[in-house]
Design goal:
- The protein is an alpha/beta fold and about 400 residues long.
- It has twelve helices and 15 strands.
- The protein has two domains: about 270 residues, Rossmann fold; about 100 residues, DNA Methylase, Chain A, domain 2 (Alpha-Beta Complex).
- About 30% of the residues lie in helices and about 20% in strands.
- Strand 11 and strand 12 form a beta hairpin.
Length: about 400
């Protein structure tokens, strides 16, 4: 049994959340996922005994039991350390349930997608284990997702109510990884919950786009790339064919435009960039790293190429010797689905501070709903009323592809 604050990790993926939490002083006792490539990654990285910076004698996942399983089949007994009593409680239950049902990159079917229901498996296991804290991460699209009656914001309100019904006080925020030292503009929705401790404040930013208020400036993509070794030539993808000339003409921070859909407030067409045809601006943090083998293009001198999987892993904060499993596309998928480690570390430190204060003498209070959440939900509802017909046709086309 470990003396450090313990984590039970669900939907562990390639281990991004676990890496950050263990840097913050937590110890993962169980890490579980259904994806064989994720499990191979966790086991190989554990076997490599990769040292945790600033923690002499500690290696990532050193005490973790790595379990390949469907979360729907798991019980509390499966997640307790060997020899633990039935009353054992983890200090933290952490996980990022699959984001595809809520992501703007998908069809946004929410609870209509079987993966959307996996959040309720996390609720079930929390009820069985009664962790002192819960940490859940997901895409920002969950904030405005529709619920059972089709209203925007219902999904997150339903999830909030279910945690409250379990006796947990709940706090929500959206967090940008660039504000915590990552060279990536990655905004995610985060929930912290507890039944018997103080709800900690979300970690204050350490970085700012312009370095205001005494904070450090954002770390740019160019800064990060300058510190990395030259990529393996076998990982380099350069433009070719008819598309190459079009890509070479782009200015940094722009891309090849998609077809424009005429919408109510956009009579000239709703124009966007093709996800696979965007040239990154090296003076800024990168855009969000996706779970796709077509990351953004970069121009270094006279050379144009895509970001490599190893560079994307660095943007997500993975140690350079983390043993990502599979062929190139599998690695991109594992990397893009991971929790950014700098964010995980900052959250882990804040929750640790709350844990160290001990149990509350009275049940913790639930903070008010953030005002910017309300504004965003109202905006999504107004946009949907104006553009429901065109969006429905677009989703039908996408579903048929």
């Amino acid at each position: 049994m470990t003396a450090s604050p313990t984590v039970v990790s669900l939907f562990s993926g390639a281990g991004g959340l676990d890496i950050g939490l263990e840097r913050a002083g937590w110890e993962t006792v169980v890490a579980t996922d259904i994806d064989p490539a994720a499990i191979r990654t966790l086991r190989a990285s554990q076997a490599a005994k990769i040292r945790i910076p600033g923690a002499p004698g500690r290696a990532y996942l050193a005490s973790a039991r790595i379990l390949e399983a469907d979360v729907c089949d798991l019980k509390a007994a499966d997640l307790r350390p060997t020899g633990a009593k039935p009353t054992w409680r983890p200090s933290l239950l952490a996980g990022g349930p699959p984001c595809q049902p809520w992501s703007s990159a998908g069809l946004q079917r929410g609870f209509g997608d079987s993966r959307g229901l996996l959040i309720r498996q996390m609720l079930r296991l929390a009820d069985e284990l009664r962790p002192r804290y819960v940490l859940m991460e997901n895409v920002r699209g969950l904030l405005t997702a529709v619920g059972s009656t089709g209203k925007h914001g219902e999904a997150i309100q339903a999830i909030h109510a279910e945690w409250r019904n379990l006796g947990y006080a709940v706090s929500w925020a959206t967090i940008n990884a660039a504000n915590y030292g990552a060279a990536q503009r990655r905004v995610r929705l985060v929930m912290i919950a507890t039944a018997d401790h103080e709800l900690p404040a979300f970690p204050p930013p350490t970085h700012d786009e312009h370095g205001r208020n005494g904070l450090k400036r954002w770390v740019s993509l160019g800064d990060l790339l300058s510190r990395l070794p030259n990529p393996d030539p076998s990982d380099i993808v350069e433009p070719s064919g008819a598309r190459a000339k079009e890509l070479l003409s782009l200015k940094p921070g722009t891309g090849i435009r998609t077809g424009g859909t005429v919408e109510h407030q956009r009579p000239g067409g709703h124009w966007g960039y093709r996800q696979d045809c965007f040239l990154a601006d090296l003076s800024l943090p990168s855009r969000t790293i996706r779970a796709a083998g077509t990351p953004d293009w970069i121009r270094l001198g006279k050379t144009m190429r895509r970001l490599t999987w190893a560079e994307c892993a660095a943007l997500q904060g993975f140690p350079s010797d983390w043993e990502l499993s599979g062929q190139r596309d599998a690695k991109f998928r594992l990397i893009g689905n991971a929790v950014q480690t700098d964010v995980a570390e900052a959250l882990g430190k804040s929750i640790m501070d709350g844990l160290m204060l001990g149990r509350c003498s009275t049940p913790p209070a639930c903070p008010e709903w953030p005002e910017y959440f309300t504004r965003r939900i109202r905006g999504a509802s107004a946009d949907h009323r104006a553009n429901a017909a065109t969006r429905s046709r677009h989703q039908s086309i996408q579903a048929s592809l």
